[in-house]
Amino acid sequence: MTTWEFIARLAVGLGCGAAIGVERQLRARMAGLRTNALVAVGATLFVLYSDVNGSENSTQVAAYVVSGIGFLGGGVILRDGFNVRGLNTAATLWCSAAVGVMAASGHLAFAMIGTVTVLLVHLFGRPAGRLFDRDNPAEEDEDLQPYRLHLTCRPKSESHIRALLVADTTGGDVYLRGLDTTRTDAQDATSLTAHLLLDGDATSRLEQLVARLSLEPGIHTVHWHKDDPEAEALTHAPKTDPDD
Hints:
Number of helices: 8
Shape: elongated
Mean pLDDT: 75
Number of domains: 2
Membrane topology: Multi-pass membrane protein
Largest sheet: 4 strands, antiparallel
Distance between the termini: 65 Å
Oligomer: single chain
Number of strands: 6
Low-confidence stretches: 229-244
Order of helices and strands: HHHEEHHEHEEHEH
Transmembrane segments: 31-49, 61-79, 91-124
Domain MgtC/SapB/SrpB/YhiD N-terminal: 10-128
Helix content: 55-70%
Radius of gyration: 24 Å
Subcellular location: Cell membrane
Family: Belongs to the MgtC/SapB family.
């Protein structure tokens, strides 16, 4: 193998992994541009190593790469209550390694076709899944991230504000999963907490929602933050005596 062939295969592996990573980065996933690019480069280098040394067991090296990526993918799979998150991210890392192995084997066009296929699955697989699961389109979409929207309003405005929240989270990319109401002791204000699921650029969407709600009469305060179930569980966990 010449130096230029080595560079060409490595460049294609890097480019394919980076292309997959860009789509993941735009959706604010755990494994984004750098992670997918490095996985593809690593897989490419491992297979190229066997070719450079004149070894004939490149297929066996590729099998080792698949096993190694399995351990890496297992690290991004998280359990969130009764749900499991990170399966799509782990599968994407596996695909990034696959296109890297394909590029290292010299099948550059096939590696690019594989990259396009992975991108198409990410782009059209989500809306297709929601189309089939019409009753609960957000239930199985692990890419959606939890957020909370807090606001206080006059008690007389509660019904109107609840209707606005339902209207603003229907038929779009913002899913309303729950709505809690708390009244203060003085009965002069009502606190509403909306549990939301969003994907992609959640910050701009939430800021737009906050801006619309801020213009409504009767609302005193409104703000949002990302929901962290693990941190909340630690915060509400019972304290133990260090001497126990």
